TrEMBL record:
Chain ranges of the RNA polymerase sigma factor 70 region 4 type domain: 103-152
Keywords: DNA-binding, DNA-directed RNA polymerase, Sigma factor, Transcription, Transcription regulation
UniProt-listed InterPro entries: RNA_pol_sigma-70-like, RNA_pol_sigma-70_dom, RNA_pol_sigma70_r2, RNA_pol_sigma70_r4_t2, RNA_pol_sigma_r2, RNA_pol_sigma_r3/r4-like, WH-like_DNA-bd_sf
Keyword Nuclease applies: no
Annotated RNA polymerase sigma-70 region domain residues: 18-77
Family statement drawn from the similarity comment of this UniProt entry: Belongs to the sigma-70 factor family. ECF subfamily.
Cellular component GO terms held in the UniProt record: DNA-directed RNA polymerase complex
Descriptive protein name: DNA-directed RNA polymerase sigma-70 factor
Record organism: Plantactinospora endophytica
SUPFAM superfamilies reported in the protein's UniProt record: Sigma2 domain of RNA polymerase sigma factors (SSF88946), Sigma3 and sigma4 domains of RNA polymerase sigma factors (SSF88659)
Length: 161
């Protein structure tokens, strides 16, 4: 009798190498801050390392944790700006974008953070609706609805330009 062994668990290093950049981009879509996105992703990987024995599928766990922490980070910043005396940090410096990039960024800025996350997960990471629903902690129908509304807002904004 031949015994088949269970598939080997992916190593931390392999998952980190494959998922770090996409997760940072996912966090950046919500936070708008590269340093904050990197910090949030690092925190999520540390948490996963602590809970590794409890997590069966690391990639969906990591995506959901990044979305959750990014949303929480954004809510805290909104409250800080509303009730705090701190000034907003200066915008990040990067190469000047071309006209198309500027229009797309402006259109994406009109979306709510959850809508931006859905658009990013679907069209940048090319995830199916079920995986997006898992990452966001909602039903597939909600993902479809969010995508539909998001695309309508993007189309309307891009048509105006």
């Amino acid at each position: 009798m031949v015994q088949t062994s269970a598939p080997a668990e992916p190593t931390f290093d392999a998952v980190y190498a494959a998922q770090y950049d996409p997760l940072v981009r996912l966090a950046y879509v919500t936070t708008g801050s590269r340093p904050a996105a990197e910090d949030l992703v690092q925190e999520v990987f540390v948490e996963w390392l602590r809970r590794r024995d409890d997590v069966r599928e690391p990639v969906p766990y990591l995506r959901r944790a990044v979305v959750s922490r990014s949303t929480s980070w954004l809510r805290r910043r909104i409250l800080e700006r509303r009730y705090g005396d701190t000034e907003a940090p200066p915008p990040e410096q990067s190469a000047p974008p071309d006209g198309t990039t500027t229009a797309v960024r402006a259109a994406l800025a009109r979306l709510k953070p959850r809508q931006r996350s859905v658009v990013f997960l679907r069209y940048y990471l090319d995830l199916p609706v079920d995986e997006i629903a898992s990452a966001l902690g909602c039903r597939p129908g909600t993902v479809k609805s969010l995508l539909h509304r998001s695309l309508a807002v993007l189309q309307e904004h891009l048509d105006d330009d």
